[in-house]
Amino acid sequence: MVATSLGPNHVVAIGRKFIDAQARALDATARALGSSFEAAVDMIGSCDGKVLVTGVGKSGHVGRNIASFLSSLGTPALFLHAAEAAHGDLGVVRASDVVVAVSQSGNTRELIDILAPIRATGAKIVALTGNADSVLGLHADVTIGVGIRDS
Predict the structure, then answer these.
(1) How far apart are CA 129 and CA 137, in angstroms?
(2) Across-strand partners of 102?
(3) What is the pTM of this model?
């Protein structure tokens, strides 16, 4: 067991602060949904292939959850690690696919490096990024702003 000098009331206050911040972030995200979200849903819904979700680091963890969620709903989806994709795994991408790229900065080198090869396959790209003016945001077919404002 980890020893802590924090009292139980302090721990509860920290927990509440964390949950309140998450609730505010979800509320802001819900209010910000617009036509780009609708376009992405339409693109994924009409996809004749599979949905490949990619990212690196924490964004990769989010991407794995998105792929898992889509798959559990019956949408053929899988996670494709961007670094692995750059070293041969892009062979799985087809023109009938949609690639959902997740990156807070939108300028993650591993994602930038695979944009042109993905585009060359004819697959569509949806960006989930905190920076719509990033390399990823500007090269995607649809860009959805999902920035994290508070840590």
Answers:
(1) 7
(2) 55, 128
(3) 0.86
